[in-house]
Amino acid sequence: MEVDILEFKVPVDNNKTLFVWDIQPSHTEDQIYEGLYSVFSSYGPLYLLKVCPNAPLNPPGFYALIKFYSAAQALKAQQQTDGRPLFQNSPLKVRLSSKQTPHFLLDSSRPLSHARCLELANHCLGFNGWTSDIITLKELTNEEEGEEEEEEGGVRRRRLRFGCLLQLSFPHHGQVTRAAAVVEDSFTCSGPDVLIQKRCRLQKQVREKALVQAFTAVLLILLGNGKVMVEVKQTSDQFLPEQTEGVLQVREFSWSDFAPDEEEGDDEDWDLTVS
């Protein structure tokens, strides 16, 4: 039986990336995106789908980059779509990338964003296939600093820190893991409304960071018969239920970590080397 393992990390392996070209300009870019998504998402969840116009010196048309979470699903999609017209009148070329992935990327791939974690978990397990519960969410203060206020150039600034301990459960698979995070922000406190908004925003951010941290320990095992199993990696910093009673051990994040999600493909060189 074929087995494929998915992690909640940004896929960087070349065997999970497809290039599609010979896309005719008879459709708009949005229509091409919808057509490609409809076809390729039927093989499995997609991390990235990008459609771009051909370079000026090439004939009019488009090409696309598609990233799967699963190498097996990417291979199956390539084999069954290459040379077929799909959504247009002429056949498309679909190839697996043969670009070599640097070892340092394979060893230190980034965790998925909060939105991508939810998307992948819901796709593979269903909306009732997992639950998350907040064990502790509280504002953290340094007793030595008192009110956590600072003065900079005569301007009063306030520093807030929140910690969250969260439990992620997979009831149909009997698996549980816990994780924690801390976020903080230093800002000009111009009124109580600003303080309330910052508190609400930081509470949301720390919940999301704790959930992302919990998902990094989760493995989705895709079986050839279509079933999905869940395993939790045992790591040295993993929180077990009996170890977290009354304790909040945290991983720190600064406000600069919370830039809006970007498509990770934007800064990637599109080396159109294919196999």
Description:
- It is a single chain.
- The protein is an alpha+beta fold and 275 residues long.
- The protein contains five helices and twelve strands.
- About 8% of the residues have low confidence.
- Strands 6, 7, 8, 9 and 12 form a five-stranded mixed beta sheet that branches. It has a four-stranded antiparallel beta sheet with strand order 3-4-2-5, with helices on one face.
- Strand 3 and strand 4 form a beta hairpin.
- It is globular.
Topology:
Layout: E1 3-7, E2 17-23, H1 29-40, E3 46-53, E4 62-68, H2 71-81, E5 93-96, H3 103-107, H4 114-125, E6 131-139, E7 149-152, E8 155-170, E9 175-188, H5 192-215, E10 218-223, E11 228-232, E12 252-254
Parallel strand pairs: 9-12
Antiparallel strand pairs: 1-10, 2-4, 2-5, 3-4, 6-8, 7-8, 8-9, 10-11
In angstroms, what is the radius of gyration? 23 Å
Structural class: alpha+beta
SSE topology string: EEHEEHEHHEEEEHEEE
Residue share in helix:
10-25%
Query: Helical region count?
Result: 5
Number of strands: 12
**Uncertain segments:** 246-267
Largest sheet composition: 5 strands, mixed
Give the averaged pLDDT, no decimals: 82
Rounded to the nearest angstrom, the distance between the terminal CA atoms is: 26 Å
Quote the beta fraction: 25-35%
Shape: globular
